[in-house]
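Project outcomes to date are best conveyed with an example. Our students and postdoctoral researchers have been running inverse folding experiments weekly, and each run begins with a structure described purely in tokens. The record below, which covers 459 residues, was selected by the lab manager from last quarter's runs and is presented without edits.
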């Protein structure tokens, strides 16, 4: 939350979107690098995960040391009355540029905001009762909400699991394919860095979310095809202990896989799957069955049998990888970074920290909810059902973004508040008019904007 606000306040307005997006680029780059390290440590028989966790402290220490050398935000210093420190900080950040015009613009904007919020009361209450900031808060929180509801962290956290669900049988291969998806996320975030100041936040977000919706449908259709061609269960062995277990009653592999207590024992004779059975998973390890033909790993491999805990053998495994890659190709440039970029811009100075805190809270709350519910939803709705659900939520988000998100490209932070003077979910529609030109003037301490028809009155 703090990083994006700091970058937005310190950056020149014509580079603000690109610099905030670069922050997301480095996050995705770190995820890609971490995935490669995970793949390397997956070959260790023991304690590989300990090394993965331990090494994550190294970049955190480097980042902490780097933060010690950062100047404070000039806008924050100005808000706290530290005008000379603000001037020095702005001069340090801009180096050789003339800072007087920008300094005076920031100063007058903050003085105006302080007059507007004078009178006490909490900042949050003022945001909720002042229409422009309330609309901005709805847009900011809505963008963060739909970023998570479109399933990004399900894809990132469970990419290896999703690939295994689709039929990828080798654990190490699934981990390396997950690294490929993380690399795709990183590469196409760079595309977003390039596009954000060229096409603008609004168009980039709309195109991103439209492509994300289509990609989720492809993922869902891939799992649906796998379910429709799921191998039938031929053998129904009895539990030697005499207990009545649900596993032996399933008739198809996909239903067996949706039960977390069951696994699939089979023999692969390409292209046919034979000698199939659904039996309980061992309490000791999910790599073997609790009893029966697949309960001893060395023995069942000699007999040419295979054991599956979370996948069904299928010829449609490639659709999951295609869907994941397309998903990240579309998601990364826009929806991956634009919610953070837009939230760092749309609030006035007095509400910026609170607005970003609220929208970040929405992001993390739904991050946790979506991540925790994914496997349970897959169990109750089936694998394809959960991705159809995500695609429907992403489509809903597309309508929200189209109606409510105005374009902020090339507009100074001090002037963005005027974009939210219109009724909620008309600001985006009005702003989408390409022929519309806005000039900003300051009248007695208030922001006011004129359309082309009004500019003849400006002297």
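After processing, the design step wrote out the following sequence:
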């Amino acid at each position: 939350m703090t990083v994006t606000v700091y970058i937005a306040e310190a950056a020149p307005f014509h580079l603000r979107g690109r610099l905030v997006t670069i922050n997301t680029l480095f996050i995705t780059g770190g995820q890609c690098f971490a995935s490669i390290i995970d793949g390397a440590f997956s070959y260790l028989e023991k304690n590989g995960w300990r090394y993965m966790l331990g090494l994550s402290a190294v970049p955190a220490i480097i980042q902490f040391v780097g933060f010690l050398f950062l100047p404070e935000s000039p806008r924050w210093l100005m808000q706290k009355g530290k005008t000379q420190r603000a001037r020095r900080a702005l001069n340090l950040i801009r180096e050789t540029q003339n800072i007087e015009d920008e300094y005076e613009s920031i100063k007058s904007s903050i003085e105006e905001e302080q007059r507007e919020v004078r009178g006490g009361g909490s900042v949050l209450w003022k945001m909720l009762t002042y229409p422009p900031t309330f609309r901005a808060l709805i847009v900011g929180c809505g963008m963060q909400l739909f970023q998570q509801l479109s399933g990004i962290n399900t894809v990132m956290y469970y990419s290896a699991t999703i690939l295994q669900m689709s039929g990828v049988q080798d654990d190490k291969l699934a981990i390396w394919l997950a690294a490929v998806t993380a690399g795709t996320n990183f590469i196409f975030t760079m595309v977003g860095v390039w596009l954000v100041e060229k096409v603008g936040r609004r168009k980039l977000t709309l195109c991103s979310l439209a492509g994300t919706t289509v990609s989720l449908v492809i993922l869902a259709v891939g799992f649906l095809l796998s379910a429709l061609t799921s191998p039938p269960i031929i053998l129904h062995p009895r539990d030697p202990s005499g207990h009545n277990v649900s596993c032996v009653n399933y008739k198809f592999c996909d239903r067996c896989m949706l039960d977390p207590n069951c696994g699939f024992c089979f023999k692969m004779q390409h292209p046919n799957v034979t000698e199939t059975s659904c039996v309980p998973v061992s309490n000791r390890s999910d790599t073997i069955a609790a009893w029966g033909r697949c309960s001893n790993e060395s023995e069942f491999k000699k007999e040419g049998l295979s054991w599956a805990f979370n996948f069904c053998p299928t010829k449609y495994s490639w659709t999951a990888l295609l869907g994941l890659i397309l998903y990240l190709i579309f998601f990364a440039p826009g929806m991956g970074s634009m919610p953070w970029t837009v939230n760092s811009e749309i609030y006035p100075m007095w509400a910026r920290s609170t607005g970003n805190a609220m929208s970040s809270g929405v992001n993390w709350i739904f991050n946790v909810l979506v991540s925790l519910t994914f496997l349970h939803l897959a169990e109750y709705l089936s694998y394809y059902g959960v991705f159809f659900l995500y695609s429907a939520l992403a489509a809903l988000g597309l309508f929200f973004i189209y109606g409510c998100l105005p374009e902020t490209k090339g507009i100074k932070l001090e002037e963005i508040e005027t974009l939210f003077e219109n009724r909620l979910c008309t600001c985006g529609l009005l702003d989408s008019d390409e022929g519309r030109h806005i000039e900003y003037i300051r009248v007695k301490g208030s922001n006011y904007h004129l359309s082309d028809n009004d500019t003849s009155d400006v002297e």
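The mean pLDDT is 80. The longest helix spans residues 349-381. The training component of this project remains on track.
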